[in-house]
Structures
1.
Amino acid sequence: MREKLGLIGFGAFGRLTARHLSPWFDIYAHDPAANDGEGHATLTDLATAAACPTVILAVPVEALEATLAAMGPHLAPGALVLDVGSVKVKPARLMDDRLAPGVRVVGTHPLFGPQSGKAGIAGLRIAVCVVRGDRDARRVAAFCRKALKLGVFEVTPEDHDREAAVVQGLTHLIARALLAMEPLPTRMTTASFDRLMEAVDMVRHDSPAVFRAIERDNPFAAEVRERFFTLADQARGALGEG
Amino acid sequence: MREKLGLIGFGAFGRLTARHLSPWFDIYAHDPAANDGEGHATLTDLATAAACPTVILAVPVEALEATLAAMGPHLAPGALVLDVGSVKVKPARLMDDRLAPGVRVVGTHPLFGPQSGKAGIAGLRIAVCVVRGDRDARRVAAFCRKALKLGVFEVTPEDHDREAAVVQGLTHLIARALLAMEPLPTRMTTASFDRLMEAVDMVRHDSPAVFRAIERDNPFAAEVRERFFTLADQARGALGEG
């Protein structure tokens, strides 16, 4: 008999999670806005989902605090709780502060999403962070590698967010500026501009909540943005303007 | 017997040009800094190269004025002169102003370079601009399509530079800012950031002269940069900073 897994949040990422974990778990998903388990999850109430031995939080980072408060009373002793948020320092701190002492906690950030993971996730990558003790983080990493065939980075929440501030923060900032300039050229494009537009197209459907998490909930995002603007300004100044 | 083609400038792009045109022309190349025709061109003096029936100018845009002055006396009546510069308004104006009335002139901008054209140029694209009369521009376009298998955009110099200000100008500005932030993350990257870095890598070896042509010699580049900064600032402002 398969183990039960509670999935809190059944939006785009929650559904991707259910699709790839349903071979291994009976998934009980909770999301007030969902009405179709899509064959990968049984929709249920928060208490039932939160009572599973393993619980994955697939809610926007800005909703995490409220979600932790609501599910806290229903968690089983010794349950394993994971998040999948695009930043790690803040979720790790919230989970460690708010969850009862016996609850096990691991932070994760899958480095893919509904678009990039569309054709399957084997070979894609995930960051796994220790929040409460090495052992659970290592087990989660092993499962990701062996069962899901993901590449795993075992990193601290700080190191994760430092890199994410550049990898995600700048990509999103540049993409949003370019999208605001649409329509963009499509005729006389160069290979390099085509790549730039592919980067933009990959993030253009990210929800405003994802953008806010990347930019506001990453403690390193503001300084990285500042640096980018300063350097872009310098490049402009070298041309005698700005 | 094959027609002679004069190639003024035998840098990275001049050499790419020679490699792809040597099946059709006997190429006589001039460049004070070159010492090896690489099997695709015979190195010669300016006067010999400039006296060919077809002359291609593969010098930096900032060197065009001086080059036109130096080669002018040697051009054959009715010679066809083409440039390959990354901007078109300024070269078209210079060539039309400086070349003797009987000389035929066409502006071109190959939308590829030594990196993107490394594995061959068939299927890549080129912009072709009327400078002195439709007929020569159409013939050049036909040769590019049929002999070189390039996709051709027949556009005015202004339309070209408007698009180039975005396609090249912004790509280069973004790339230069990111390169100044190196070392950049390579571990926990997303597919979108990987694409952004591919765009950066494709232009990182462009010479400072190419960057200057793209940014200074394009009459539309400054307004496009302004707009990008304004929109990026707005995206930042929406986060409550800047």
2.
Amino acid sequence: MTSPGSPDPHGVHPAWLPDEAFRPIGSRRTLLRGGGPLAGTVHEEVARACARYGGSVRRQAGGRHDGDGDGGADGGGPYDLVLALTAAGDEGSGEVGIGEECYVVSRRDGVTVVLADSAAGLLYGLFHVVRLGEEAFGAERPAEHHRPAARLRMLDHWDNVAVHPVMGQVERGYAGGSIFWCDGAPRDDLTRVGAYGRLLAACGVNAVAVNNVNVHAAETHLLTDRLGDVAAIADRLRPYGVRVHLSVNFAAPLALGGTATADPLDEDVRAWWAAVTTRVYEAIPDFGGYVVKADSEGQPGPHAYGRDHADGANLLAGALAPFGGVVHWRAFVYDHRQDWRDRSTDRARAAYDHFAPLDGRFRDNVILQVKHGPIDFQVREPVSPVIAAIPRTRVALELQVTQEYTGQQRHVCYLAPMWSEVLGFRPWGPAGPWVADIVADDVGGGGLVGVSNAGDDPYWTGHPLAQANLYAFGRLAWAPSSDPAAILDEWIGLTFPPSAGGSGGNDAAGGDDGRLREALHEIMDDSCGTYERYTAPLGVGFMVRPGHHYGPDVDGYEYTPWGTYHFADRDGVGVDRTRATGTGFTGQYPPPWSEVYESLARCPDELLLFFHHVPYGHVLHDGSTVIQHIYDTRFAGVEEVDRARLRWAELAGLVPAALHARVRELLAEQLRCAEEWRDQVNAYFLRKSGVPDSRGRRIP
Amino acid sequence: MTSPGSPDPHGVHPAWLPDEAFRPIGSRRTLLRGGGPLAGTVHEEVARACARYGGSVRRQAGGRHDGDGDGGADGGGPYDLVLALTAAGDEGSGEVGIGEECYVVSRRDGVTVVLADSAAGLLYGLFHVVRLGEEAFGAERPAEHHRPAARLRMLDHWDNVAVHPVMGQVERGYAGGSIFWCDGAPRDDLTRVGAYGRLLAACGVNAVAVNNVNVHAAETHLLTDRLGDVAAIADRLRPYGVRVHLSVNFAAPLALGGTATADPLDEDVRAWWAAVTTRVYEAIPDFGGYVVKADSEGQPGPHAYGRDHADGANLLAGALAPFGGVVHWRAFVYDHRQDWRDRSTDRARAAYDHFAPLDGRFRDNVILQVKHGPIDFQVREPVSPVIAAIPRTRVALELQVTQEYTGQQRHVCYLAPMWSEVLGFRPWGPAGPWVADIVADDVGGGGLVGVSNAGDDPYWTGHPLAQANLYAFGRLAWAPSSDPAAILDEWIGLTFPPSAGGSGGNDAAGGDDGRLREALHEIMDDSCGTYERYTAPLGVGFMVRPGHHYGPDVDGYEYTPWGTYHFADRDGVGVDRTRATGTGFTGQYPPPWSEVYESLARCPDELLLFFHHVPYGHVLHDGSTVIQHIYDTRFAGVEEVDRARLRWAELAGLVPAALHARVRELLAEQLRCAEEWRDQVNAYFLRKSGVPDSRGRRIP
């Protein structure tokens, strides 16, 4: 088990690719038809499974498949599974191509067949068969055509090369160190990068940005003299169809190149980026592109030269275009030195105000990367109005898989339901497209980007159950309309196969398996809702401790320059973002949302305090007052955590002991922290409002 | 100007010892009678002044003085100044000794005479003549006997040897790096340590603890294998009569010695400390002793072994006693992991509760080092009740010269008036002794300890005007009943001698000198009051930003484990520490204070919220309500800062330009920060109370 991509070189948890998941394939006879490195990866996967479970695999590197499962003239058949590249394009057969990264899976006459036009499609098809498990070899199944919704399904790593004095090795990382970098250098052993690529391929991710969007001094050099470090990572990810992207410093020509400026309209600067980018592609021919955080939170950008974001993005896009690369230009731009006394400035407005006027000015290979909400990854925000505001610009939706504001991988918080809600939001109302349609559009879409939650932790994600978020991100990027509970179910089945439990012996009956599955759904399905219930209420956001963002501090950001306020006083709470009396942010939405959010009566309760400042006695749609809702939900959230804790305790013996112990400890911390949230939020609002809990519970 | 102790080896500001201060001595004829190293320092000081200003000095190393100024049989007279060791003790003359460190100064028949029993006294006498300036050589003056009130006048440096990842090189240091340590090692060039010793001698300080009371890994080794580093510092300070003390790790025997325990009653541990301390005195014969922070904020201590603070302190005292050393054992012990929901625990009570029961159990060479207030160096606290609670224990008063909670040397805050108030407090009422009497008592007193505000900043203290705090600490330690304004006047005269101004030419008239003096008094005399007016009101304390403690955050510590709360709600604010209805802290004081503080009517306004929780409408002794007082004083404080800023602007040309510019920039920052304090505190209380400002000023 020491070959490249081996899932457990150093006691690392296999996540959703344990050996057992390959038993159905590994115990059968497989024919693989197709050449090239990615097909080699497919072969290696099957061969390893067969070595373990007694099956066989035969590879015909040159051949392409004719559609049946008998092995044709190859002899040695029949096979249970045929994985084959099509003849599409080769033979002028006239058939419509399956498509890049796509595959068709079917079962007929006892043979399961996966066809793809490309080896990448074959690899995704293989993992589809893994997900199906024994079912893949059961009843006949008609041909199903699988294609990824979005072409770009990317994870951004906020990993620093050099340990940052404040932010550490991984900014907002809660899973140990970086799998790429350690103390200023690439890791000596990049085995784990290969294992990571394998996990990503198995959930559908095809791109990784290998360094933090805040590009510090050491990281700036990755673009030039330390490019070899990036190439080494690319070499490890390439066998799994994952491309590398690089976060770059907009001022790199100044910092590295000795130009007199980083002005995007300067010829020297343009020439510098062109030359540097050419060298990047010489070293990494399948390089994906650049990620840029410019003029944001102190990062350099085009504004210093009187240029705008379009000028800046197009500069890099021009350098990348000859090679097919893209620029991910982040829309996370706002005034982080706001005067809290200035009530007219609204951070929620900032991205729209900056970027909507630039629509149509960006080159085709610029992708505007937009956080899902207008503020910053809070557990409850409306969908960003930017997504609907720039129809002539490619948009990527940015989701935060790392749990900066959602419990930092010490709390169970399965994020897929929240992401699913965002993807399913229709910016122009019921008749219009979903967000998913916009970002996944073949021409105008920029795909999905997640900020990775993975690190060098043995469980990859710190909290073992946080693996489900990484998995679900990939699956939703591939198929945004998937049901979050179904994705979770898939993850459970793969990650906790029946024989993986501590006590064993439950393969046949499935009783333990069913108990585990049921319990995990109970613990995880609505865990994001639970988190919301014990933290900041009704969409108001940002009641976290400044700096590290873990745990409550109701006034922590209230008098700061960060633009994140709740304006609670003795009479009420919330941010008036209406056009009538507030900041006018509601006007950034098209109808019907511009009207729905504007209206106190129609605004959804869960977003009430995001859009309106209301008295504590304001009555919600369920008949409760705002203040009583605050109390009730805080108490409910804590009770839910406690139930999860007890539920998990019952699972001892059904999962590996070490994993059980870690989750048990984390649930104890989650309960402590949830109680802290409950008590601080409730005490804060009781002290301010003077309204007692109608049920007389203790508020300290 | 490169001899040891030179005040400006690298462009360092001379503070209160500019060359000009030595002009009156340096332009005259001096006779020095006395031998030994400290007398050598006196000689060097006078000789350097004479080299600059044309006077002369003659030294008679062996002789002792007979009391007149004609030089006796020495020839070469007459002299303007005679500095002489007495014959006391030598010749059985029957006269009463002047006393250790003491001196007598007089002027008769045109000769100014300083007599002392010891060379240390002679050195202090020399600096007395420097302070007098030309006046020392004017009219006749009868003999004045000067003796330090406290024998121990110590500065604690919270300097780390290795840079601490959170706290840096100097914990709570606002004046650059450490003058002793740099990046894990002693400074290559310790010249500045000598210059520091000279400044300390000139204001009366005679002891320095060279490392932080939080003793981390590297610093633990100073006691043993890195003792040479401490000895090198001692060598630089010895010529100025300043002894070194060392902060030690109570668990040092475990960490360094390989003992199985650090139990203070264990024989191996006792033997370890005895042996180690013997080696310390072999290296540093005049070593002062140990400083210990034990069982406090995570530092190890005797509690781990079921022993108490007396057991712990006596262990070290036993090791030091044979050599005349002392233990400074800090009384700053409290639960820093308090549950904020627990209203019964009161951090203010902690030191008394820990130490009062131990009174009488400490060895004679143990000094309990007590912070001046019961909490932690807030700008307004009552005097700690511990000082009166342990009559059979030696007590040192700990003051914070470094401005952790008083503007961090970015704000002008002359602390001497606050210290003077503490020293003048009479714990048993008008008929009883002062705090100064208790801590400076020859037998039972432990002296004064200040946490130093000096670093490697060119001005020593970051803010040039913060030098006055260092100077005033020394002067108050020597003479606690001194008037703070007189000390400031002294400091102004020394630091800004007439010829030191930028424009010069004002020596004769003194007009510019008078303007500068008047302005500095206006800016500084009540600057601590100003600071109090724009920060936390009425003694409530701790409204600073958590962690770094700079700038406001009204609720910053409200829901934390640190025990520092104000309990503001929509109805009122303050901490009920009465016996009747609160934590009972008032009962830790003897009468009359136990009654005064208990009584809402008699409690001084400035401490009201320290002792009582009152409604916002509570009427103060001046007729204002609490809420209106909060508004009024916040506005007043800011206006005072603005006046100081404008006043300083007028002084351009009267002080060196660089110094003027630095103070001007700092005053701009102080004004910004004061406005931030005003607006946050006012907005917070307006939002909570709903009571508008009666004068209708803008509260954001």
3.
Amino acid sequence: MSLPLLEQLIDAFRILPGVGQKTAQRMAYHVLEREREGAQKLAEVLAKAIERIGHCTQCRDFSETEVCAVCANSSRERAQLCVVESPADRLAIESATGFRGVYYVLQGRLSPLDGIGPRELGLDALGTRLQQGEVQELIIATSATVEGEATAHYLAQLARANNVRPSRLAQGLPLGGELEYVDRGTLSHAFGTRTEAT
Amino acid sequence: MSLPLLEQLIDAFRILPGVGQKTAQRMAYHVLEREREGAQKLAEVLAKAIERIGHCTQCRDFSETEVCAVCANSSRERAQLCVVESPADRLAIESATGFRGVYYVLQGRLSPLDGIGPRELGLDALGTRLQQGEVQELIIATSATVEGEATAHYLAQLARANNVRPSRLAQGLPLGGELEYVDRGTLSHAFGTRTEAT
Ligand SMILES: [Zn+2]
Ligand SMILES: [Zn+2]
């Protein structure tokens, strides 16, 4: 015998970030009481998204197509490649700055203890791309965390080894802060005054 | 042209209680990055729950069947009827106390300004049930909010009009507090020392 559907639903909500038993319960009751139509829509879109959203083969960002809209846009400047940790970080830079280059989304940061090395972040593919000579500046926009800094250091070395100039967002990011939570103004300023990476 | 699936997904998550744009975005990224299987399960269970979970015809609690498990349980004492505002409140009482009677779930509380009157809370049906003579005590477990108190007052009058003894959970509930957030001990004590309703 399987669990009652209501309990299954509460369990299922717990996969969402920051959602414990109590919040999952509230979500289940809320949709059943007041959001049946919206919940039906959520179920449909969620199933479709899981099925159809993969990764762009060029920048590793989420994409429904083999190459995402930014990478496929011929008016973007391919000489500037901005490396970010996550799709949310890419979105933050895209909406806060006037950047017209292209991105590379690591989908994580170096964390040897968790088994996340250069290969898991696609840095071998990035190295190959830098070798091809199209990229002139590698803008390193990893977060100001310990792992983000280690990742930035690795990226700067990778760039130099391929005769690409590495740069780093300017001081001004709050220390230890996640990039995606930085306010637009600070982020835009830090992006504009980026310095050579060390 | 429809919105990209990722944006549709972020929008869809916003139906959940307390979820704004930023949280919805994190949820979408999180499931795509790390919880594809769990998200698929959530989509399935959610669709099924919306389709199959209705209300018990006896107590108005959520139920997959016409009569819920508590109401269908012949060992529960039908002379004690406990009125709660929500399924979560019913669950809190059920797990914190040794109550062996049955419940009536209002799915709200009296709020004339929002158009929620006795009819919307099923109080006409409750009156009919009290008239039938099986219920001897109406345990009023609405919340200690202004609207909860007004609802309690209405319920006490309804009980007396039908020669049913109304009782109210004892003082001890934090004032203005939502019943479902009360700790087990306080709730159990208040339930055990309930007083006659005024
Ligand atoms: Zn791309
Ligand atoms: Zn029932």
